[in-house]
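Memo to structure team: turn this sequence into structure tokens by end of day. - J.P.
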Amino acid sequence: MSRYEVRPPGDHEPIVGPTGLLLRPIRASDIPTLFRWRHDPEVMQWWDEPPVSEAELAEEELEPDVNPCWRFMVEADGRDVGCIQYWHPYADTDSDWSAGVDIYLGAPGDRDRGIGTEAVRTMLDYLFEVKRVHRVTIDPDVRNARAIRAYQKAGFRLEGTMRHNDRRADGTYVDTQYLSILDDEWPDAKERWLTS
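Reply from structure team:
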């Protein structure tokens, strides 16, 4: 058990990107929207098994865990369009140099518009500039070409395939593509972002 106070996934300040995209901490009132999104066939294809109830989802999304993970609603133009999270060990541990990110866009009309890439870039800006991590990773299903392109556009580099790295609700194993970006790669990726 960590010697640090275990904090709820929504216990975080909002993150505002340089272009105005907002990542705001999730709250209980978001559960119905998240529940609906997690049952969208596109999200279900790449995300975990959908929750059976809003109560189950609330426990998953809002309850503290010894493995720290912070969750945010992605707001574009004042509308909730998706969910992004990062995991990062509590400060002052031997492993606080690395973080991981996951994201999905819940509203079908908001996909393929660059919002996901923008949200990932906003999160990377926070992780590198504020949290001062050395490395950020993400591991989408190898078949999720749209996501992999978005992550590469944000600055991630392909490292390799992790065989049977995830298991779906039906028991089948899937390979994931492992991508990362390092702190010394972020300045160039950020400059491309802000000047494009």
